[in-house]
Amino acid sequence: MNSTKILWGFLLIFLSLAACQEEEPDLTAPVTPTNLVVNSEISQDGSGIVIFSASADNALNYKYFFSDGTTALSNGEPVTKRFTKTGLNTYQVTVTATGIGGLSSSTFLEVEVQSDFSDPETLQLLTGGSSKTWYLDVAQPAHLGVGLTKELRPDLYWFPTEFRAEPNLFCNNPNSSCFCDDEMTFSLNSSGQIIFELDNKGATFFNGANSAAGGGPGSGGDICLEFDTSGQTVVNLGPSEDDLPPSETTGTVMNLSGGGFLMYYNGAFSYEILSITENNLYVRSLDGVNPVLAWYLKFTATPPGDSPGNDFDTLVFEEEFEVDGAPDASVWNYDLGTGDNGWGNNESQFYTDRPENIIVEDGFLKITARAEEFGGSSYTSARIQSYQKFEFQYGKVEVRAKLPAGGGTWPAIWMLGADFETNTWPAAGEIDIMEHVGNQQNTIYGSTHDPNNFAGDSRSVTTVVEGVSDNFHVYGLQWTQDAITFSVDGEEFGTLENNGSLPFNKDFFMILNVAMGGNFGGEINPAFTESSMEVDYIRVYQ
Predict the structure, then answer these.
(1) 3-class state of residue 380 by DSSP
(2) Per-residue pLDDT tens for 86-109?
(3) pLDDT at 8
(4) 1, pLDDT greater than 70
(5) Closest-CA residue to 326 (of 272, 282, 368, 366)
(6) How far is CA 414 from CA 96, 449, 474, in A?
């Protein structure tokens, strides 16, 4: 009997509490912020920087609207804004404080700011002086790339080390093809302000982690989503505040207002301009969700389907080796000795200028490696180069040659940066049009060397060609400011990226040689006696 009364007592208490809870309101009463005050601290050093701070009673956050078209949101912390219009200019700033329930109050102020920043060259190249349309450069490697920030990759944080898209990678996949047809236009209005418009044809390619902004799942793979990009966005150019090496950037950043972005949505609205020319734009931005990731994008001003101007159909250099005897002294220099003064690779040959090792005969240049004692070495060969006699930047190279055979032979047709005397290798850069080693018969290498990729860590592509020591083949190179592509008999077998951070945007000269052994040639066959590389012609087009 007593236990029953106790049970009913607990039940009545529970019901009473439940009733009380249901009567409590779910929402706090709305409150309008009051006493809104905004202070500004204007820099006097010509940087254009102003620090704003806002306070109000009952405010949850503050939103700043600047008359240059940009905005900023704060939970109460100061906001740093850089105004970039050159000269002394007056800007209007509206600050809205929002309180509980969404009620808000606003105030208005003006600031007079001096900015000495100016980049007229970038302004001209970006807009064409009036209006200019840019497209994703889908034909180039790494038109979309991703790298790491300095904290995770201090040796190469200005380069897309983690991912570099192959040419046309996204264009044939329905989940990403919308990326390939976007058009973005930069125009100058009557006030000299840059106006940006993105025509995405109705869909945008979203980074997986950022896809929630387009109505996607917010995680998983990248995807095309319907997204409205109509309307105009204001672009402000300003000085870089990142710590990229000066050689890797123009030092100018473009900031897009109102959520504007450059084709690929990764939550970024600020882009460092790494390089810009009349036809090419290369930018870097930090990921909006994961700021340890840096994204890279390449654009071109050439509409899809039009020639990018890399046809290289003008013959600028031709060496047909038609005159018997020594190589033409007006074109070629000899490198003599073992290379122990800086250009050798622990090889076993002594380079000479003797006809036994190098001669033009019957329409061919013949470089012959021989097993013989000479100058303290057990082998002889030859190496010639065109330094200060023929040098060029960008173009198409074709060399028709038949390669030597035998374990330890190491023939090469290659190029070296013409500033190598003051810019020591590998900083000068090296492009190997063709390398072959007799210990890997029929494997052809195309490689580049730079300060971050040299010796055993060079960037290389390979292909297998049957009978390279029995038949002539045309070893080719197509070299532009964006890519270095290797081919055999007109068939491309690999492409390596070129960009402003690499030493492949200046004059190079040609080198032909046959080495023996060394770091790459490997063990020499004890039975080796002699073998030749025969070169029919060298042609360079621009």
Answers:
(1) strand
(2) 788 899 999 999 999 889 999 999
(3) 36
(4) no
(5) 366
(6) 64, 11, 14
Q: What is the pLDDT of residue 7?
A: 36
Q: What is the 3-state secondary structure of 248-294? A: HCCCEEEEECCCCCCCEECCCCEEEEEEECCCEEEEEEECCCCCCEE
Rounded Cα gap, residues 403 and 400, in angstroms: 10
SS3 letters across 455-511: HHHCEEEEEECCCCCCCCEEEEEEECCCEEEEEECCEEEEEEECCCCCCCCCCEEEE
DSSP structural state of residue 353: -
Among 65, 52, 64, 47, residue whose Cα is nearest residue 113: 47
Arithmetic mean of pLDDT, 70-99: 89
Beta bridge pairs of residue 24: none
User: Do residues 472 and 452 touch, judged by C-beta distance below 8 A?
Assistant: no
Active site residues: 430, 435
Model pTM? 0.53
Q: Are 353 and 374 in contact (CB under 8 A)?
A: no
Taken in order of first residue, the domains within the chain and their CATH numbers are 34-115 (2.60.40.10), 120-300 (2.40.128), 315-541 (2.60.120.200)
- At position 319, the amino acid (one-letter code) is E
Looking up tokens 């990403």, which residue turns up?
A: 176
H or E segment to which residue 183 belongs: strand 183-188
| CA distances, 154 to each of 147, 149, 429, 502 (Å) | 11, 7, 21, 17
Contact status, residue 461 vs residue 493, Cβ threshold 8 Å: yes
Rounded CA gap, 248 and 156, in Å? 11
Exposure pattern of 303-326 as b/e (b: 16+ CB <10 Å)? eeeeebebebeeeebebebeeeee
Tens-place pLDDT, residues 299-318: 999 888 654 456 788 899 99
> How far is Cα of residue 105 from the mean position of the Cα atoms in its chain?
45
